[in-house]
Amino acid sequence: MRKLPQLSALRAFEAAARRLSFKAAADELNVTPTAISHQIRYLEETLGTKLFERGTRSVRLTSSGHQLFPPLRDGLDSFERAVDAVRRTQVGKTAILSSTVAFMARRLAPLAGSFREAHPDWTLRLDASNKTVDLDSEADLAIRYGSGNHPGMTVIPLFQDSFGPVCSPRLGISTLEDLRKATLIHFEWGAAMRNDARASVWRHWLEKAGMTGIDADAGLSFTDEIHAVQATLAGQGVGLLSLTLVAEELASGVLVQPFAMSLESFRYDLVYSARRSDQPAVTVLKEWIMGELAQPRGHDRDHRHGG
């Protein structure tokens, strides 16, 4: 028979040790800070040792607290994964893939049917979010866009993104002089990326092309990248767009890339938790993504049109 303190006290201690705050632990467990304090005091009395040094506005672990916290944290993480696995077994095989809203809409949603063809006994759930989701609890795997720095995660690089001017062939853009008369289409980068040099905007491209006399901020501006893509597809102007997101349209000729010059931008990575690498959902998603996206369609073709 195991001689363990009450699980509620162990959970209270783990949350408080992880957050180094009784209030934050209380918010997480949906109880009052007083309840957390009582649970930890009970645990200290049961173990016969202090687990926290209490300050006026903060707490810190004692040596005994440091000794108890890691195995307890890892044990609760293990419990959570086991419960999640059982829950998923009961509701069927579901694989959850997270990615940015733009990449989900432009690249993943059109491919979703191929997942069902390859894995007919699985349900694919696509979670479109520009926020970083928890890959231990909220999704099985993610395709993330950025610098490639994902601490604590297993990372498989997919491909580098680049930006270039694209437009409908109906506009007849083929020279820089044509571009002077065209409407430029812009979108706003998110706060986390907008100050990074890799966040491509028209000013960067025009400077690299050596073009002067063009207002780099004029034209049509959208707060959402998808809307900028849609306006470009509708022939409203020339968009400085991700060549990854419009690869299919460039390959089919619905859009053209009038100028060969492009700007290298951020990277797409396949990312998952190392602690869940042996989970079936991670395995089937990784296999599907590598088959569909490791070599993005359209990037190996020449999309230049004139200029």
From TrEMBL:
Span of domain HTH lysR-type: 5-62
Keywords: DNA-binding, Transcription, Transcription regulation
SUPFAM superfamilies in alphabetical order: Periplasmic binding protein-like II, Winged helix' DNA-binding domain
One Pfam family matching this protein: LysR_substrate
Keyword Chaperone: no
PROSITE patterns for the chain: HTH_LYSR
Transcription regulation listed as a keyword: yes
Family stated for the protein in its record: Belongs to the LysR transcriptional regulatory family.
Name of the protein described by the UniProt record: LysR substrate-binding domain-containing protein
Species of provenance: Noviherbaspirillum album
